[in-house]
Amino acid sequence: MSYIHFPVIAVMGQFLAAFLVAIFGSKSRKASQAITLIASACAFVLVCLLIKPVALDGQIISYWMGNWEPVSGYAIGIGYEMDALGLFFAVLVSFIILMSAIYSLRYLEHDEAVDRYYTLFLMLSGSLLGLVMTGDLFNMFIMIEIMTFSAVGLTAFRNYIPEALEAAMKYLVIGSVGSSMTLAGVALLYAQTHTLNMAQVAAKIGAMQASGGLTPTVVFAFGLMFVGFGIKSFMFPFHTPVADAHPVAPTSFSMVFSTMVIKAGVYGLIRIAYIVFQVMDKSSVQILITAFGCVTMFLGVTMALAQHDFKRLLAFHSISQIGYIITALGLGTALGLTGSLFHVMNHTLFKALLFMCAGAVLHMTGSKNLDELGGLSKKMPHTTICFLIAAFSIAGIPPFNGFASKWMIYQATYEKAVESGNFFYALVTVVAVVVSVLTLASFIKVTMSVFFGQLPEKYKDAKEAPASMLIPMWITAILCLGTGVLYQLVDRTLTAPAVAASLTPANYVDKMMGSGYAASFSVKDAVATAVQHMSYWNPVLWLTLLVIVMLGVFIVILSGDNERGPVLKTKEPVADGKYATFFSGEKYRHSHMGGSDLFWGFKHDMKPYFDFIEEKHSGVLTDYTLWTIVAMAVIVVYTFVFVK
Questions:
Q1: pLDDT-derived band of residue 554, with 50, 70 and 90 as boundaries?
Q2: Distance (Å, rounded) from C-alpha 493 to C-alpha 498?
Q3: Per the confidence metrics, is the pTM higher than 0.70?
Q4: Collapsing DSSP states into helix, strand and coil, what is residue 444?
């Protein structure tokens, strides 16, 4: 069989498997599990078989549904167009889906109606693969809709938990706004270009820019689609549904949600900004994307510091790490995009591992409250080691993978500041390093709260997680280390081809539509760019990093409120409230936050900031929807004024 059919087989195989689970799954739990495992494994194998022809050989696979091929260079049918960028995301999607399917075998053993879970799970898998493989804008929207509604259903899967229904409702409303913005942008593009094929749209927009600039309709479409995909990536200020969804959703879904559902928005931003609209050479767009990313990563990590719920804390770190990714892709440089895509992969690995560890703790103890847990390293040594590897990775400790990608991002923002002479990018560098330090602090807190210290009496009989949960954990842990040590191999195989595909929309257009555009950036250039800058042990760079860290610490100290309030000898524990998004219901802000919280002093010093955060995050859906609408208006106005 020719590999030209692999993309559509991988996608349709997931939807077919979902149909089979819906028919046979209710009669047998094992049938649901077997169908899901087989479909997930087949998709992963099919996608991996495309690495050589697409990533290494530079081919772009084009498959026209129903043989509706272009007529006289004009696309009529729906095309699946697999380039190196789509393949990069498809490899990550198929890998995480397979790991989640294996992990769920024992994790869901206490749940009923798992056939419904696996039906939604396979629909989610198919939509994610279809999203990154399609070459048609409207088909992309369809896949986004399937993804959104599948994710909403999986969030509400444990519907006996009231918070699960509320979280699903918030996600549904905010997500639907994002889908609507995307659809409106697609409609405007169709009205302007009379086609839905991304390559053909890109060709027409490229010709438009060459002849005088973008029309107001195209600028409006870009603004709407930027909002739509920004909502799907949960960047600030669209981040609110994440914190409520993760604590109540099954962990086997959370690891997919946090790693790949959230990356669907990132993929969409890269695809439209770099390839379809080709606006990343404009400083106004670079500042817009980088600013949103910078605020997102800082806001996410400071929220995480205040959490006492294990999974809620990880949810906020997902927001923060997405901020890194969006910040780097907004730079519009080869190094920035390399760091962004490398961090996409690394975040996928270490965040999936973190959620699997949290799920293992919850599955074996029944708790995710950091104030209740402790000393589990004695009972769960494998989970402890895997968690430490993931924590080192997300904190950017060498030689784990998080360090490699964060180091690229630091250098990319610093070089952008030097080349552009814009102080804004120097500030971004400071924020990126400070956020990494705060991330490390947050995971010191979690490590001490969950795995070390005194083992509570009620967990004295806790046991290690079962093998079907440990296997994907160890596979992912090994990859967290391996991709950090062998970063050059990873870059040559996956990252550099994806960067080259993003920076050469001409190649995409030419191979799809035969436009005759000339290539301007090659895979070899992308590899050279990354390798050239990955000099870990350059003393000058380390000195620069040290200065930046000290500057960040100095800024934090000066901005704090140093007036000490009363310190209470005891603290009355308060359970997580319905809208306790940030503080988990602490009653006394001037007291110690509890045994698990090592950084109560920092939070007290930054009390004005945290008070402001708490006040603005009411937990009310209408407030969050208003945020979304206001942000959309601001972004659209900005694009009209500054994007030409």
A1: low
A2: 9
A3: yes
A4: helix
